[in-house]
Amino acid sequence: MLPVVALVGRPNVGKSTLFNALTRSRDALVADLPGVTRDRHYGVCRLGARPFVAVDTGGLSGVDEGLDALTAQQVRLAIGEAQALVFVVDAREGLLPQDRGILDELRRSGKPIVLAVNKTDGLDVQGALAEFSRFGIAATLPLSAAHNRGTDDLVGALLPLL
Ligand code: GDP
Ligand code: MG
Questions:
Q1: Domains in the chain, please, with CATH?
Q2: Superkingdom, according to UniProt (predicted)?
């Protein structure tokens, strides 16, 4: 069985775009509407020395009812089956209270976390990273999933955890 990496974060931060970059597919549904991926979505990443399974998730909105609750349940299943977690945040929106709540949940899983600060294209990268440094995650990496920048470094940070 290949190791599993779950991509987790708020809706619209770029999880599906990252999934596509990692798996080099267009399978994951990328949309400008937040929260379009409602179930889990699997693909194999072969960018590094060893392949792993990436799981795209629907996003944790913090609203724990209705469809959002079902999505959150799916995300928790993905976290449960993963060896490592990629916590994706949006450098343009910055650190939101929801991100803190999601991180608390990820930490409760006890799984290793890599923080991917996405949408850094056109931004001051150091400034974008500085805001998220307060999370205290050693592996914090800048990313532009849409421009396929930072994906190799992300894979490089993940492989030792798998
Ligand atoms: P998800 O809801 O977390 O799966 O987010 P999506 O992958 O569907 O992306 C949400 C929106 O953010 C889409 O309009 C993407 O084109 C855009 N997006 C994703 N990654 C990047 C990035 O690296 N830079 C920029 N500028 N936009 C991005
Ligand atoms: Mg998505």
A1: 4-151 (3.40.50.300)
A2: Bacteria
Give 1 or 106, the one with higher predicted confidence. Answer: 106
CB 129 within 8 A of CB 150: no
Closest atom, ligand 1, to C-alpha of 9: 3
Who's near 93: CB < 8 A, 6+ residues apart?
A: 13
Token pair for 108:
């409760």
Atom of ligand 1 nearest to the CA of 144: 23
pTM of the model: 0.91
| Ligand 2 center–CA 56 separation, angstroms | 7
Of all atoms in ligand 1, which is nearest to the CA of residue 19?
A: 7
Confidence of residue 65 (pLDDT cuts 50, 70, 90): low
Binding site annotation covers 56? Answer: yes
The annotation status of 37 as a binding-site residue, yes or no, is no
Q: pLDDT value at position 126?
A: 96
Separation of alpha carbons 91 and 143, rounded Å: 9
- The overall average pLDDT reported for the chain is 88
DSSP 87: E
Three-state DSSP at 76 gives helix
pLDDT over threshold 90, residue 72? no
